[in-house]
Design a protein that fits this description.
The protein has one domain. The chain is mainly alpha-helical. The chain is globular and about 50 Å long. The mean pLDDT is 95. A 3-stranded antiparallel sheet has the order 3-4-5, with helices on one face. A two-stranded antiparallel sheet has the order 1-2.
């Protein structure tokens, strides 16, 4: 199946996004998501995704529920955020572009439910604007870990609204294994591997210096590239 699609984990989804947001407009990205995540859940039930709806949605409907999933970034560079300009302007242009390119590969992408519930923000929307998260996926993943433990976090209300989605994966270990996120969690899935030192949501998610950004950048590149390899190995086994 992977060979038929020509799966390339280093494909930059900006190249077929028509100048738009790749998460919303790249047909290759949606095809890769469909290929990767149409598979059995921890329960053994098949989580089949179909692309009958317009971009960017992938749809699932079964006895386990109905879900419309959309893509989001698992590797934020903040390269276009005005609030980070004083930091990112201190990074060599070639290094910024390298980070952007890797962030737009499949290892830097994740899926969440894309429909609002009761007019409240989606997970994608809330994690981008929440001052404790600011689009950091490692911090989002920590919130998801705490959700499975029944503990509070900056995203607790939002994640609880989508509790039926997270229940598909049974626990944090099931969630990280399903979405091939083992490179951002400990072997027993008891902790998250943070891309920067973590102080339980008490400090800004942003790097404070160019040096901190470089530390974050290097860890982020390592995560995406490791996940790319994990995904490629998974596709070979299909």
């Amino acid at each position: 199946m992977g060979d038929d699609l020509g799966f390339d984990p280093t494909f930059d989804f900006r190249t077929d996004a028509g100048g738009g947001d790749p998460d919303s407009t790249s047909p290759t990205l949606r095809a890769y998501h469909k290929l990767l995540w149409s598979k059995p859940l921890p329960s053994g039930d098949l989580f089949e995704l179909d692309d009958s709806k317009p971009l960017p949605h992938l749809h699932h409907q079964s006895a386990r529920g109905e879900f419309d999933l959309t893509s989001d970034s698992a590797m934020q560079t903040w390269n276009t955020w005005d609030r980070m300009r004083r930091i990112t302007d201190g990074i060599e242009r070639s290094e910024r572009e390298e980070f952007l390119t890797i962030a737009h590969q499949i290892g830097g992408k994740v899926m969440f439910p894309g429909r609002e519930i009761d007019g409240e923000p989606t997970i994608n929307q809330e994690r981008g604007r929440n001052e404790h998260i600011l689009d950091r996926f490692d911090l989002t993943l920590e919130c998801i870990r705490l959700h499975y433990l029944g503990e509070t976090s900056p995203l607790a209300d939002t994640l609880n609204r989508y509790g039926n989605f997270f229940s598909l994966f049974e626990d944090f270990h099931g969630y990280t294994n399903f979405f091939l996120l083992q490179d951002l969690a400990s072997e027993d899935s008891s902790t998250v591997k943070f891309l920067m030192p973590f102080a339980h949501f008490t400090t800004s998610p942003f790097p404070r210096t160019v040096e901190e950004y470089q530390y974050y950048r290097e860890n982020g590149i390592s995560f995406v590239q490791s996940r790319n390899r994990r995904m490629a190995e998974y596709i070979v086994r299909l």
